[in-house]
Amino acid sequence: MPKEVFGRDFQFLPRSELLTFEEIVRLARVFAREGVSKLRITGGEPLLRRELERLVDMLARIPGIEDIALTTNGALLPARARALADAGLRRVTVSLDALDDATFGAMNDVAFPVARVLDAIDAAAEAGLAPVKINMVVRRGVNDHCVLPMAERFRNSAHILRMIEFMDVGTTNGWVREDVVPAAEIKQRIGAIWPLRALGPGYPGEVASRFAYVDGGGEIGLIASVTEPFCGGCTRARLSADGRLHTCLFGAAGHDLRALLRDGAGDEEIAARVRAIWTARADRYSELRASRASPPPRVEMSYIGG
Ligand code: SF4
Questions:
Q1: Closest residue (by CA) to atom 2 of ligand 1?
Q2: Which fold has domain 15-226?
Q3: Ligand 1 neighbour 284 (Cβ under 6 A)
Q4: Ligand 1 centre from 207 Cα, in Å?
Q5: Which of 132, 153, 214, 293, by CA, is between 20 and 30 Å from 120?
Q6: Is the dihedral of CA 198, 291, 172, 176 positive or negative?
Q7: pLDDT truncated to tens, each residue of the chain (306 aa)?
């Protein structure tokens, strides 16, 4: 959420337009009955939502939900990791793009130091939210000099570092194709120092290609969303804070489920709508980008989460 856009005078959504916890849980119940078993809470920054532990607790009680994860910048995690784990959170993914404060700040525009994120990773692991996944977006000329230091820092740890190609999420991150460091190049750079061997996907539809360090230094993931798009195996639906269902990370046009909820629709009616949306979906934004076709308009990342 760049400060130039979301400054002091920015008019955020009034609370009444956000889904309540009860509404989120009701939709999650419908999704679970339709076959969803994994939930990931994203943002913006999800730990800014008051009483998030209560939401996690409510979601964890839904029959069929086997896994609840959270993506966070880590700033507020140290004080809350234990309570979140107690509420039923299973895993966290923490964003960390560099190990030095200057590069980290250049990538993220946040006002806290790297040490705080490292504390968050430790706190999450101590709370049992393991293995902690660490997401590093790699942007040429900004933080690609950090690829090897980051790999070294998290080798031989219990955590899993995942390096992600810089994507055109939203319209405010100044994406140009030249800034993308292809996953193949990242793999070559790391493998030249610490040889890697490919591992199979951990589960169907996993977006990261997994590699093990041949010397036993653990695992690393590469996410080639720009150079090797995986739209064909994409199984993720996203629900925005104001109740719109997006069937693609880049899809600007979500489907309004909040109106259905607030107009008194029953669970079966909502389920039918979700089924209709999902079965009609034909999203392939990253494939269109890769083929240099003109992709459709994008939604902002801060709105839809990762
Ligand atoms: S671009 Fe859209 S459809 Fe393709 S993998 Fe990403 S979220 Fe899924």
A1: 248
A2: TIM Barrel (3.20.20)
A3: yes
A4: 10
A5: 214
A6: positive
A7: 666 667 777 777 888 999 999 999 999 999 999 999 999 999 889 999 999 999 999 999 999 999 999 999 999 999 999 999 999 999 999 999 999 999 999 998 788 999 999 999 999 999 999 999 999 999 999 999 999 999 999 999 999 999 999 987 766 667 788 899 999 999 999 999 999 999 988 888 788 999 999 999 999 999 998 998 888 888 899 999 999 999 988 776 789 999 999 999 999 999 999 999 999 998 888 888 887 766 666 666 566 555
